[in-house]
Amino acid sequence: MTPAVRLPAVLREDRPFRLLFWGQTLSFVGDRLQPVALAFAVLGIGSATDLGIILAAGAVPFGLFAIVGGVVADRVGRREVMIVSDLVRAAVQGATAALPSPAWPRCGCSWRSAPSTARRRRSSCRR
């Protein structure tokens, strides 16, 4: 029998560190999934060239804001900068996910049409 996996003591006993750890873990997972979702969204309605342009366009603001962010972090405080930047990033990515896509009318994958589509499928399955 394999022994149970135990969390390190710092994650069990230190609540602020535990919150930081799990918050950063969730942020990391979201950061790694975002390009995958973006690739599916862009390739669904465009070409590989369009995807390359979109990904390159994301690198420019990162380069600019990384420099400015370092200066701000030195003057304001790392904790405050980290919290505000994570909240802004979550809001921007949430807004991007909620924006209407030109592909939605074609593929019927609008989150607004999902309940009615599910009802139609469910009713057709009963026949």
Given the structure, what is the number of helices?
6
> What class do helices, strands and sheet pairing give?
mainly alpha
Radius of gyration: 21 Å
Bin the strand percentage. under 5%
Ranges where pLDDT stays below 50 over 5 or more residues in a row are 105-127
Q: So what's the oligomer here?
A: single chain
Features:
127 residues; mainly alpha; 6 helices; 0% strand; disordered C terminus
Q: How are the elements arranged and paired?
A:
Layout: H1 9-13, H2 15-45, H3 48-76, H4 78-98, H5 104-107, H6 114-126
Helix pairs in contact: 2-3, 3-4
Structure characterization notes:
This protein is mainly alpha-helical and 127 residues long. It has a domain at 9-95. Helix content is 81%, strand content 0%. It is built from six helices and no strands. It has helices spanning 9-13, 15-45, 48-76, 78-98, 104-107, 114-126. The model is unreliable at 105-127 (pLDDT under 50).
